[in-house]
Design brief:
Length: 42
């Protein structure tokens, strides 16, 4: 990630967005797996 020369606030925003994007699919996948388990499909 090219963050050299960017203000600390902009860097923090980029990190927050990156972290959020990385975290979003995890609950979705867990929910889908839970739904399949509830239906008896593994």
């Amino acid at each position: 990630m090219a963050t050299e020369g960017t203000p600390a606030s902009a860097r923090r925003i980029v990190q927050d967005v990156t972290r959020a994007a990385a975290e979003v699919p995890i609950p979705t996948r867990a929910r889908q797996a839970g739904s399949r388990a509830a239906l008896g499909v593994v």
